[in-house]
C-alpha cells in the first residue's frame, strides 16, 4: 500500500506573520516616540509651566489648526513646490559637476594628492558663509540660492564617487587590461557601473545637506519658498503658521530621505539578484 501524500504547505498568512509582527512593533515604537515628542511639546508650551503668552502661539493645537488652514488654502503647496524645484535643479547641477570630478580625482592618484587638501578645506566651509559673496556676484533672486545649494551638494557626491573608484575590485581592472580594453572602455564598462551604489549614497547625503541649507538660502530676497514663508510668518507675527511650516519642512525632508533610502535598498537588492 502506498503512503498517502502529506500536505506540508504552510498557510500564506503564517509565512508572513513574523514580518507583519516586526512591522507592527516598529510602527508602534515609532508612534510612541511621536506621541512622547508631542506631549513634551505641549508641556513646554503649556501655560501651567510658563506665563509667556507668546509660547501659546507655538502650542500643538494652534499649530495643527494653522497647518489645516494652510493645506485648505493651498498656499503651503505653492511654497513647497518652489523649494522642491530649487532642490532638484541644484542636485542636477551638483551631479553634473560632482560625478565627473569624482571620477577624475579617483582615477589619478597624483591629482588626488594634489587636490585633496584644497577640497577638504573648501568642503569644511559652511555653505551659508558664501551668502554675501553669492549676493555680490549673482545679485538678489534665485541665482544665489542655486549657487549655495549646489556648492553644498557637490562635495558628498564627489567624495563618494571618488571612494567608489578606489573600491573597484582590482581583478576587474586586471581583466580589462588583459583584454586590451581602452581607458574609455574600462571607465564606462567597469568603473561607472561599479560606483553607482556609492554615487547613490552621495546623492542621499547631498539631499540631506541641501534641505538643511535650503531654508536660510531662501532668505536672500526671493518671493516664494519655505524659507521665505518662514520669514513672512515671522514678520506677520503668525507664530502658529511659522510652527506649521517648520513641521512641513521636517516632514518633506524625512520623505525625501526615506525615498532615497528605499531606492538605494531596491537598487542593491536588484543588483544582488542579477549577480546571483
Automatic annotation (TrEMBL):
Record flagged with keyword Metal-binding: no
CDD domains tied to this protein: TM_PBP2 (cd06261)
UniProt main location, coarse: membrane
UniProt cross-references to PROSITE patterns, sorted A to Z: ABC_TM1
Location relative to the cell: Cell membrane
Keywords carried by this UniProt record: Cell membrane, Membrane, Transmembrane, Transmembrane helix, Transport
Nucleus among keywords: no
One matching Pfam family: BPD_transp_1
InterPro entries reported for this sequence: MetI-like, MetI-like_sf
PANTHER family, per the entry: ALKANE SULFONATE ABC TRANSPORTER-RELATED, MEMBRANE SUBUNIT (PTHR30151), TAURINE TRANSPORT SYSTEM PERMEASE PROTEIN TAUC (PTHR30151:SF25)
Similarity comment: Belongs to the binding-protein-dependent transport system permease family.
Name of the protein described by the UniProt record: ABC transporter permease
Amino acid at each position: 500500500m502506498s503512503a498517502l501524500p502529506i500536505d506540508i504547505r504552510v498557510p500564506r498568512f503564517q509565512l508572513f506573520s513574523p514580518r507583519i509582527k516586526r512591522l507592527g512593533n516598529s510602527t508602534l515604537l515609532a508612534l510612541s516616540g511621536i506621541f512622547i515628542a508631542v506631549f513634551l511639546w505641549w508641556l513646554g508650551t503649556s501655560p501651567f509651566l510658563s506665563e509667556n503668552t507668546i509660547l501659546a502661539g507655538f502650542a500643538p493645537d494652534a499649530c495643527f489648526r494653522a497647518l489645516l488652514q494652510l493645506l485648505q488654502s493651498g498656499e503651503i503647496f505653492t511654497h513647497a513646490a518652489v523649494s522642491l524645484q530649487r532642490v532638484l535643479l541644484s542636485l542636477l547641477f551638483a551631479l553634473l559637476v560632482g560625478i565627473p570630478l569624482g571620477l577624475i580625482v579617483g582615477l589619478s592618484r597624483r591629482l588626488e594628492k594634489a587636490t585633496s587638501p584644497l577640497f577638504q578645506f573648501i568642503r569644511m566651509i559652511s555653505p551659508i558663509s558664501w551668502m554675501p559673496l553669492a549676493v555680490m556676484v549673482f545679485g538678489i533672486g534665485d541665482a544665489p540660492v542655486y549657487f549655495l545649494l549646489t556648492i553644498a551638494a557637490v562635495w558628498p557626491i564627489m567624495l563618494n564617487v571618488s571612494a567608489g573608484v578606489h573600491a573597484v575590485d582590482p581583478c576587474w581592472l586586471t581583466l580589462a587590461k588583459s583584454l586590451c580594453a581602452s581607458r574609455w572602455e574600462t571607465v564606462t564598462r567597469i568603473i561607472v557601473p561599479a560606483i553607482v551604489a556609492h554615487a547613490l549614497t552621495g546623492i542621499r547625503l547631498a539631499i540631506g545637506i541641501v534641505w538643511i541649507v535650503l531654508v536660510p538660502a531662501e532668505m536672500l530676497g526671493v518671493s516664494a519658498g519655505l524659507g521665505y514663508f518662514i520669514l513672512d510668518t515671522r514678520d506677520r507675527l503668525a507664530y502658529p503658521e511659522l510652527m506649521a511650516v517648520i513641521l512641513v519642512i521636517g516632514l518633506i525632508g524625512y520623505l525625501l530621505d526615506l525615498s532615497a533610502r528605499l531606492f538605494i535598498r531596491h537598487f542593491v537588492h536588484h543588483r544582488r539578484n542579477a549577480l546571483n
